[in-house]
Amino acid sequence: MVICSVLAIFSLFSKAMASARERTFIMVKPDGVQRGLVGKIIKKFESKGFKLVAMKFTWSSEEHLKKHYADLAGRPFFPGLVKYMSSGPVVPMVWEGLNVVKTGRVMLGATDPKDSAPGTIRGDMCIQVGRNVIHGSDSVESAQKEINLWFDQKELIAWQPAVEAWVYED
């Protein structure tokens, strides 16, 4: 009887954890695109078990990037950041999964590549902070804001990968 109750609680917990999936915004910056790293970055997120729900290849305007980086507008590096980010195409993406925002940030590594651990995207693929190849949302709230800025709702594809049962418990 007790075992059945424990199993029932565990089953409910597992389902709650699986349903607590969230979305994050990840963008390969112009240096990552120019260096041909888009596929390697996608492979890392797919290998982890996250689900790609939106992606595009675009060359963003300075006006759009000012909105994206509005929280950094008062910083001295802001004008250079916006100019750099508008200097070439970028690949914005939306990834979905359990704790994808926090885990995604860990996968990216520290903003400054010299502080990034080996095995992270920035730790393995970057040298300088001004060419750190990738942007990732830092919270669920900023992810939602960034997703809404870059994608229309119709561009977010709801789908079920065949391997999902091998990534998540019940």
Describe the model.
The protein has helices at 2-19, 30-34, 38-48, 62-68, 78-85, 100-108, 121-125, 140-150, 164-167, and strands at 21-28, 51-55, 91-98, 134-136. The model is unreliable at 4-18 (pLDDT under 50). With 170 residues, the chain is α+β, with helices and mostly antiparallel strands. A four-stranded antiparallel beta sheet has the order 2-3-1-4. It is globular. The protein starts with a helix and ends with a helix. The chain has nine helices and four strands; from the N terminus they run αβααβααβααβαα. Residues 1-18 form the signal peptide. It holds the Pfam family NDK. It is an enzyme of class 2 (transferase). Residues 21-158 form the Nucleoside diphosphate kinase-like domain. The active site is at residue 135.
